[in-house]
Amino acid sequence: MLDQQALVQLSTIKGISAFYTDKTDCLVYGYDNSKNLVLPDAVIFPTTHEQVVNIVAICYQFSIPITARGRGTATTGAAVPVRSGLVMSLEKMNKVISFEADNRLITVQPGITNQAVQDLIKNKGFFWPPDPSSSEFCSVGGNLSCNSAGPRAVKYGTTRDHVLGLTFVTGEGKTIKTGAKTTKSVVGYDFTRLIIGAEGSLGIITEATLKLLPLPETKLTAKIFFSSIQQATQAIKKIMAQPVIPCALEFIDKHAIDMIRDYSDVDLPNNAGALIMLELDGDQTAILSQANKLETIINDSGCVSINWAKTEIEINDIWKTRKALSPALRKIAPKKINEDVVVPVANIPTLLNGIEQLSERYQIAIVNFGHAGNGNIHVNLLTDPDDESKLSKAYQCLDELFDLVLKLDGTLSGEHGIGLEKMKHVKKELDDNYISLMKAVKLQFDPKLILNPGKQDY
Ligand SMILES: Cc1cc2nc3c(=O)[nH]c(=O)nc-3n(C[C@H](O)[C@H](O)[C@H](O)COP(=O)(O)OP(=O)(O)OC[C@H]3O[C@@H](n4cnc5c(N)ncnc54)[C@H](O)[C@@H]3O)c2cc1C
Predict the structure, then answer these.
(1) Spacing, Cα 115 to ligand 1 middle (Å)
(2) What is the pLDDT of residues 30-40, one digit of tens each?
(3) How many angstroms does the Cα of residue 143 sit away from the middle of ligand 1?
(4) Which of 63, 209, 264, 324 is most deeply packed, by most CB within 10 A?
């Protein structure tokens, strides 16, 4: 329950779009795509930076936990208000503040969706590289706070590589502006990169200046089938070891292919052991010779077939295969455990072999796909969490998976982040010195520990 005085002060802030205290209204702001649920005491919808400052100052005074929220699509529980208190939904802060073509930037409020930004800048000849498959629904603030990414990361990097500066509010209600409108700046510590990926635990982002890139002239996309995972992973290693960088290099294993065939209208060959989807972007003349070079490498790795798509319809058709995967998985195992581990590209074959062995030993079906060019594999354990014995077996399997990933010089999460779901595993990756420095940093940004409490807290 919020302090009565705090409630009055919060509800009378001028200009807020809405303030909910009724349980039914608050309910949908208590969960995200992780399916964890904790009911907040209240939900507030600011529309300006000044209102955010005001809200945080009140929460600081009354020691009220605040969980910032974009669109609640996080898969880890990052947006779940585990200590109740106030959810601050940034969804009404969805304005474009300025677009500057010559400076290749756009400044936006955090609640705007990724897709809205892409649509707006596409007409002006630009794109913003972060491309999570949730782009239509997720907010830029969420993308920043989770350092989200998608297929394009293999060529362009993640969100962290495409932000010039931020305005954010600390846990004491102080306003901090970071970065510059320039692509070069070395003044002071780089708080921009620190806030990105912090899951709302160090500050509430109220403005972001995003670095834009010109749209490539054209794209060429290939669907490449292999008879075995080994051949596909060898091809991935060879592609990454030469100079042509694809703007997508996605991998789908045999189990996933079978599932797409069985549960969608996508036509896939029966003998397919693995599938790679590769995309090139660039100018019209260069792209054809790049495609030829890659085709030679891919043929040498023993591919069964390679089909290039050139028109938008053909390209969309190829991506339809990848898009059919999530609905198929949802049908088969609606409560599957989905991890997004990463290993160096050279270690993907060892990782996939290890996963196969875990699957046999624990008798759990495991489906793998993902952004192979980054070594970022989505490992899906098809288990039933409602069955306690199956769940405990799945967690043991997961524990071994994480050990394997770290042994292979990898990391526990490539894009989904830690949230609640991976908290207990973080100490496998970060040592005591690292964690105590994180705690010290947290105290400087949020002395009363009110910002998204219970997250990034190991
Ligand atoms: C179908 C589906 C597909 C997905 N595909 C991908 C994918 O391809 N790649 C990928 O990386 N992720 C993916 N995700 C995960 C998710 O969409 C991303 O993490 C996304 O960036 C979250 O944005 P959001 O607006 O929903 O944030 P929320 O879920 O609302 O919040 C996420 C975190 O950000 C914090 N936060 C939000 N706004 C702010 C702010 N203004 N200031 C400070 N902290 C803030 C929250 O406190 C929370 O910790 C997918 C999710 C779904 C459901």
Answers:
(1) 13
(2) 999 998 999 99
(3) 5
(4) 209
Residues with CB under 6 A from ligand 1: 32-33, 67-75, 78-79, 90, 110, 132-134, 138-139, 141-143, 145-146, 148-150, 199-200, 204-205, 415-416, 452
Report the SS3 class of residue 66: strand
Within 140-228, residue ranges assigned H as helices are: 140-146, 153-156, 191-195
Domain layout of the chain by residue ranges: 4-89, 96-214, 218-326, 333-427
State both tokens at 259.
């599932």
- Give residue-wise pLDDT tens across range 261-292: 888 888 888 889 999 999 999 999 999 999 99
For the segment(s) 333-427, the CATH number from 2.40.10.330, 3.40.1010.20, 3.30.70.2740, 3.30.420.10 is 3.30.70.2740
The CATH architecture assigned to 96-214 reads 2-Layer Sandwich (3.30)
CA–centroid distance, residue 11 to ligand 1 (Å)? 27
Tell me how far the alpha carbon of residue 253 is from its chain's centroid: 21
Looking from the CA of residue 195, the nearest atom of ligand 1 is 43
Element (H, E) at 119: helix 114-122
Name residues whose C-beta falls within 8 Å of residue 383's C-beta, 6 or more positions apart in sequence: 333, 335, 336, 337, 364, 390, 391, 393, 394
pTM of the predicted model as reported, rounded to 2 decimal places: 0.96
Quote the ligand 1 centre to 142 CA distance (angstroms): 4
Question: CA-CA distance, 282 to 277, in Å (whole number)?
Answer: 17
- The per-residue pLDDT for range 422-445, each reduced to its tens digit, is 999 999 999 999 999 999 999 999
Return the HEC string of 221-284.
EEEEEECCHHHHHHHHHHHHCCCCCCCEEEEEEHHHHHHHHHHCCCCCCCCCCEEEEEEEEECH
pLDDT tens track for 324-363? 888 888 888 878 899 999 999 999 999 999 999 999 999 9
Question: What are the b/e assignments for 84-95, b being 16+ CB within 10 Å?
Answer: bbbbbbbbbbbe
Q: For residue 353, give every residue at least 6 positions away whose Cβ sits within 8 Å of its Cβ, in sequence order, or none.
A: none
Task: Please state, in angstroms and rounded to a whole number, the distance separating the CA atoms of residues 310 and 300.
Answer: 23
How far is 208 from 195, CA to CA, in rounded Å? 11
- CATH class label, 218-326: alpha beta
Within 10 angstroms of residue 356's Cβ, the number of other Cβ atoms is: 15
